[in-house]
Specification:
The protein has 215 residues and is α/β, with parallel strands linked by helices. The chain is built from nine helices and six strands; from the N terminus they run βαααααβαβαβαββα. Helix 1 packs across helix 4. The N and C termini lie close together (7 Å). This is Beta-phosphoglucomutase.
Amino acid sequence: MTYKACLFDLDGVLVDTAIYHFQAWKNLGTKFGYALTEEQNELLKGVSRVESLNRILTWANYSATEDQKSTWLIEKNENYLDLISNMNPSEILPGVLDFLNQIKQAGYKIALGSASKNAEIILSKTGLIEWFDLIIDGNKVTKSKPDPEVFLKGASGLGILPTECIVFEDAQAGVEAAKAGNMRAIGIGDVEMLRQADKVIPNFVGIQASELLQF
């Protein structure tokens, strides 16, 4: 198989904003007396803001009105934006820039496939935006991972078949989305958590694209 494009999730793959999401959700939890755990926060990776709130409310066994949900979603995002306002290139995860340079030099198209509605802000603040041919984020999709919509739109936007795409994901839902879209999935992180991926690497440090992308 000849691959032509690499599609990346954002949080936990290129930069680590999970800590900021965790803090913002924890802060919101004080509204209804709930303390989100780190383990639960892992289950929110790759999930939309609305679905994340619904999951937290379910865990808290709290019935919120639609007005409360709307207000809290705005508050959470404003808190999150405040937390990420000082992000800079130092927060790019180790090995990422070298890997992006390798695949760019090799002629791969590069796209983002993220549930985050703040993806462009983060990419701009960290200086990563210049690497991307296409950005598909939470503002351009209606379905959360594991639905493959975000990645299928990425492939379509690049003018490339799904089978010609390789997806890089750190979340189980993201890996499932890639496989549902008939794409190759490379997991970033723990092998046990990402067992459905075609291959798993701990991070991009020392990774040679020529070896990783040959199947």
